[in-house]
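Bench notes, afternoon.
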Amino acid sequence: MVFGEDGAEIDWTVGYGPPPEKFQDRLEAMKAGPETYKALAAAYAKNPKDIPTVFKLAQKWSDRYNNVKSAQMYKELIAADPDGKQGTTEYQKEKVSYTELAEFNVGQNALRSRPPDPAPLQAFLKKYKDGVIVKDAYSRLAQGYYGRTAPKDEAVKFFEEYTARFSDDPQVLSAYVRRILQDKDNLDKGLQLAQEAVNLAKGGAKGNMLQLLAQVYLQKGDKAKAAEAAEEILKVAAANPPAAPPVQAGSGEAPPARADMSAMNAARIFVEADKLDRALAVFGPEYLKKNMENGRAVAAYATFWTGQGKNLDSALEAAKKAVALTPDAYTGWNNLGQVNLKLKKYDDALKAAEKALELAPAQPPQLKENIKKFIDQIKAAAQEKK
């Protein structure tokens, strides 16, 4: 935040990306720019009916995650210009009225409430019929309401409309598949949609669609077909290797590599398909040996196999290595405690969990509370053994 000599807020920014040497320029712009919060607030005080000013002020509050204040400003704009005749702006490189974008943003804010309120975006879709913003409104409703919260019959009606309208988009089809998997119903429809999504997807994105296809097969009890989909995931990953991570500005070094998510996802399917040997071949001790100096990879490996309750000796080796690579990370110690608990090494599990509690940040408080519950779980298991 930038303040004036009188202590009044001039402007703010939430987060900042590279390059770091440009941050000073950002601060100077915030101090002197014509569209700072201070300048916009002054313009609003003089003319609260100026649509561009109201919109930009609403955006300022939205940037600060003050959804109540931003929604209030957007609603003022809509009331002042309900037909959207007083100016346009851009959304995803398409021209829209300030009113249309304000109504879209009000709808997004409503979905963030608890419980989520879909009514404003539903009204938006009745009023507006075309454009990227309309497709995004469908997407927000799918993610924020119909994908998880809505009653099943309402969700089916929505997703039938959504997928019929955007039938050539694999991401749209996959959203319906996820809801079907959640409901564990209408699996034949899910299988049809998942296969269409696989056929439509390009490059590495095909792997994500194959994961959904495998999950549908598993729910249908067809483990052989699920395993075939897992093999296809590996082929897609081999044909579409990830780009090398960018070099961090000023350091000359690339960030730590991530775990091979394709191998892990395929392994998960193989485990569920009762093909443990294949899972171990893909994401087992040999994988760990090759990635022993990759902190993220060994941590992901330990967490995965601990969750599966299998290959635990190898998971313990990975968890110990993760702690050695990042000894100040509470998550590594917590994972070490988890795998030791699975192995019924209660003393080692307790020591690791207590170290995790020591290193965990105080905020949010749930972090330490969860670790305390984990410590109680270890003590209870140890007592039961006695």
